[in-house]
Amino acid sequence: MIHFDKVSKIYSDDSIALDEVSFTVNSQEFVTIVGHSGAGKSTLIKMLLLEEKPSHGTILFEKFDVSRLRRRDIPKYRRRIGTVFQDFKLIPNKTVFENVAFAMEAAGRTDEEIAADVPHVLSLVDLRKKIWNFPHELSGGEKQRVAIARAIINQPDVVIADEPTGNLDPINAREIVEILKRINSLGTTVILTTHNKDVVDAIGKRVITMEKGKIIRDNKDGKYAL
Amino acid sequence: MTIWSNFKRTARAGFIGFWRNGFVSLASVLIMTVTLFVFGSTIFINALLEASIHEVESRVDINVYFSSSAKEDDILALKTKVETLPEVALPVEYISKEDVLGNFKKHHENDEVILQSLDELDVNPFGAILNIRAKEVAQYEGIARFFADTQTDDGGTQIQKINYYNNKQAIDSLGRAVDGGRKIGASITIALALLSILITFNTIRLSTYIARDEIAVMRLVGASNGFIREPFIIAGAMYGALAGIIVLGGFYPVTYWIASSIGDFFGGLDLFAYYIEHFGEITLLLVISGIVLGSVSSFLAVRRYLRI
Ligand SMILES: Nc1ncnc2c1ncn2[C@@H]1O[C@H](COP(=O)(O)OP(=O)(O)OP(=O)(O)O)[C@@H](O)[C@H]1O
Ligand SMILES: [Mg+2]
After folding, report:
1. How many independent structural domains does chain A possess?
2. Does residue A19 register a pLDDT over 90?
3. In this prediction, does ipTM exceed 0.90?
4. 3-state SS class at A213
5. CATH classification of B60-165 is 3.90.550.10, yes or no?
6. Size of interface A-B (CB pairs under 8 A)
């Protein structure tokens, strides 16, 4: 489904974030990417989201070459990917409902669909009661659950989570992992990055290990090993 | 998605953004209020300037003195002809020789010697006068030439004197002053307008800068550029419209106060009356320039954060 073919990202001569990285993620897989800080995990995800373009190599999403997308087709492409970040990236002056609804509005869905789907998805992440709160009124774990609700609201083909547990305590981290596993078991591909051994072990699925911009290990049912 | 529900959604997002970013909105509206106040003031300053120029211009005229033997019919025929000249401001004033005599007598009613010697003459020694005003100062030259030509044609038997040539220098320098005044007025207007636009643009840019992370998130969620931009443009337009209305209301007491304190210093223009009389145009100008300024500034400001 997603295929990286010798992808490099060279910011400058002494900052090579990705060095000829190749791997394939199949549909419905749950892939965990681990690596030390600066290994290139976030860079890899930025390439996939087209926040940055690769210096060399190609990225295929299904059959098409991502870097060949026309500018105006990029938003549509991004709607097929749900994203979750360490710093939640919620819109501060929108309520929980509006933060999730925004993704649907951006996808051109009707008000009726929004009124029906948003509460439903928010109850999946156990946030029905906080629907009218603003992000600053939520705990870290709750914010991250809002972000996950937003990521899955448009039924994306893949959910990408870049260190989603980075700012959370173990209990909340565990909960987020469980939600992501549930999303994966319902048929959505999940790509997650982390440094956290407990998180990797709790997932217990394929683990790709990165170091200095290269993939150094790819274990089918990996445990954390650095 | 119909266009209407799309519009409703955008308008709602614009309104909510306006309301929730209370402080930023307030600051933007305040700055735009100042901007539009400057904008609006130039309207009134220009009106005052025009009125003053008009007032000065109206004091200038050409006096054509006819000889006492010139026939009234001929003079009146000439008057009709002059009135058809496009440069001439109507009415052309005709003072008959009798009126001139009457005026003269009245002027010298305490001077027995003069009155007596006038009485001894059995003919009226005065000629009739035509007073002509031009629509613009620069046109006096042409009108004067018309009379000079007429004078040449009749061999000087009818027109005795055209006093434009005496005043020529004064009129010319007045013409230059009027031109200069208009140019200065126009440049001040343009300079102020540019300045206002710059200030507004920077304020809006600041308010968008505050929202830059939000814009980045919107893009990540897959919002198209247009979808992200529209609420900002609506909010910008609302800042402008609101500021325009505030300024419009503010001019009510301001012009009232100015009108009552400067009186008829500037060519007798009553600013308050001017404000009331031109209320429609001033409203349109202020509100529309506010909306245009606000929305265009927002458009440009957001564009920065929409580059991939
Ligand atoms: N915009 C940039 N300009 C220059 N160098 C960059 C830029 N972004 C990232 N890098 C470099 O690329 C390398 C990989 O960074 P990246 O953010 O992908 O690491 P990471 O694996 O996500 O680390 P962490 O676990 O700390 O998030 C780092 O050496 C970083 O300094
Ligand atoms: Mg990272």
Report:
1. 2
2. yes
3. no
4. coil
5. no
6. 61
